[in-house]
Design brief:
alpha/beta; Alkaline Phosphatase, subunit A; Gyrase A, domain 2; 2 domains; 7-stranded mixed β-sheet; 4-stranded antiparallel β-sheet
Length: about 375
């Protein structure tokens, strides 16, 4: 599912700013920014577009952006599912999930009963085989443009990092370091692209909830980071700030547990995805019955598709044949504030999350692109 203006278009626009010969800027960033030699792209995990007004209460820079006083704000969409692994690879490759193959937070490995969690993935399966699309970091390198990524040390070498950012020159950081200062120093040191990422806002949303005091503290910290980057921008530099998804709080009354409901559990052999988008792998011949049962139980609360119907509906964009089996026999995309837990299949922490995302609602899919010129 892709908006005409999506997360897939951000790095091509950044590459066009830097003069990469095969880069096409469909967002009009080059017209607004002009000639630059340095571009920083910073992704704030969980900073959905609809959250900006609430964030602004603790974020003077974002408040100024919303008021039209500084920077330029555009609305884009992430790709479906609206989950971090899928979005990061859509950003890094400029490709839709059906092409790059990172089709959810967790997916069942074809020809195996193992579920792959893309966050904890290392080298099995090999990242360059599991995700075959070249990244924009690779493409910039081939064009002679330096591309760097400043990431938490434990991210470097992971399967997801390789799938999303391979080709980048990796720089490690720790929680004790001055992240904004390190990013600013990298940008000032050499022309080219610098990529940065922060998860603090998303973590607070998951653990404490959107709108919680902890979430507002995280908002203030993110705004302080961005403010320092804007203030440190060289005259020949641009800063592009975006997000991977939005989110919403899921109340207890809106949570269903497929392992506690015999009607939902019937015919289901394995479960993947996340609480907002479930991939159900069924026993032989059970798919029509599972679609019918889930459609009945979750009527008005979720869209329920067979795999074929989900692909025809274009949820993932065109899907490569070798990626089809990563999608469940049944795809369940929650609407409203519903979530489907799978306590028999997942760690108990998943059921304890307050804020969630993954589905196709505007609250989850809308993301900002905020552009600043040095």
């Amino acid at each position: 599912m892709r908006s005409p203006r999506s997360i897939c278009d951000i790095l091509p626009a950044a590459a066009a700013l830097l003069g990469a010969p095969d880069a096409v800027d469909t967002l009009g960033v080059t017209e607004r920014i002009g000639d630059v030699r340095r571009v920083a792209v910073v992704l704030v995990d969980g900073m959905g577009g609809h959250l900006l007004p609430e964030l602004a209460a603790d974020a003077p820079l974002l408040a100024s952006v919303l008021a039209g006083e500084v920077g330029r704000l555009d609305e884009l969409a992430c790709t479906f599912p609206s989950t971090t692994p899928t979005s990061l690879v859509s950003l890094g490759t400029g490709a839709l999930p059906g092409e790059h193959g990172i089709l959810g937070f967790t997916v069942k490995l074809p020809d195996s009963d193992r579920v792959l969690n893309h966050i904890f993935w290392r080298d099995d399966p090999p990242p360059d085989q599991w995700q075959p699309v070249p990244t924009w970091f690779e493409r910039l390198g081939r064009a002679g443009v330096r591309a760097r990524a400043l990431l938490p040390a434990h991210f470097i070498g992971s399967g997801l990092t390789e799938a999303a950012y391979r080709g980048a020159e990796f720089h490690a950081t720790t929680t004790r370091e001055d992240y904004a200062g390190h990013l600013a120093d990298l940008l000032a040191a050499e022309p080219g692209l610098v990529y940065g990422y922060t998860a603090e806002l998303d973590t607070a949303a998951h653990v404490f909830g959107i709108g919680s005091p902890e979430w507002h503290v995280a908002a203030a910290n993110v705004d302080a980071l961005l403010t320092r980057l804007v203030e440190a921008l060289p005259a020949d530099a641009a800063l592009l700030v975006t997000a991977d998804h939005g989110g919403l709080n899921v109340p207890t009354a809106a949570r269903f547990d497929l392992d506690a409901d015999p009607q939902l559990g019937a015919g289901v052999r394995m479960v993947a995805g996340d609480p907002r988008v479930r991939y159900l792998h069924t026993v032989d011949g059970a798919t029509p019955d599972v679609v019918a049962a889930w459609s009945e139980v979750l009527a008005g609360r979720a869209e329920v598709y067979s795999r074929d119907d989900a692909v025809v509906a274009g949820l993932f964009g065109p899907v490569r044949a070798d990626h089809l089996q990563r999608i469940g026999d049944v795809v369940v995309s929650c609407t409203g504030d519903t979530a489907v837990l799978a306590t028999g299949y997942e760690p108990p922490e998943v059921a304890q999350l307050v804020g969630m995302h993954g589905a196709a609602t505007a609250a989850e899919m809308a993301i900002p692109l905020i552009s600043f010129r040095g």
